[in-house]
Structure formats: structure tokens, C-alpha cells
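Hi everyone, sorry if this is the wrong subforum. Our group has a chain we'd like a structural model of before ordering constructs, and none of us has done structure prediction before. Sequence below.
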Amino acid sequence: MKKAEAARAADSKPSLPLEKYAGVYNDAWYGPITIRAENGNASLVITFDHTPAMIGDLQPWQHDTFKAHWRDRTIEDAFITFALNLTAASRMQKWPQCRRWRISASTIKTCS
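Answer:
Right subforum, don't worry. Here is the predicted structure as C-alpha cells:
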């Protein structure tokens, strides 16, 4: 995380309003994963429907990358990057041994 902090463009902003990142994504390993807007669309929360402990608050990190702070602090924080393609349905794909997720209209990958 320290390496990521040093490379971060801290003054960047997400490309879209936060509520536009909300949706239900599907991962072959984890199943449905829901990202929802809360607090009047001021924040995002990610939940893994089949893994109740995996609930996290998404903090804008840089551009379309968010940092997931898991409410269960035994789970390490992770980065979630949205590769925007607004014309296709979304699904998830898991890469083992990674703490980074890449979400696009066609896939979500856990390494980049």
C-alpha cells in the first residue's frame, strides 16, 4: 500500500458521479457482488453477497480506482479499478493471490 500511496495522483477525481459506479457484478468465484451508493450518493459500499464479512467502504483513490476499506479489519484493504465501457453488461472474473480488482463492462479482474 505504501508504494501505491507514493504513486497516487491524490488530486484526481472519479470520471463519473459515484452513483454511476453502483451495480451488481458477478464473479465466478465470489458470486454476486453489489456496489451501492449511500449517504445521498456521497459514498460507495461494496458487498459480496455470498461472503457476508466482505463489506467495504470505497474511498476514491485516483481517477477510477477506489480503495476498499473492509469493515472486517482482518481483511486487507484492496484497490478496485473501474475500466469504463458503458455499453455492455458487467461480470466479474477473479485472479487468485491479488488485492486489486479491475472492473469493466465486460469483466472484473483482481490484478493489473
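For your construct planning: The chain has one domain: 12-109. The first strand starts at residue 23 and ends at 27.
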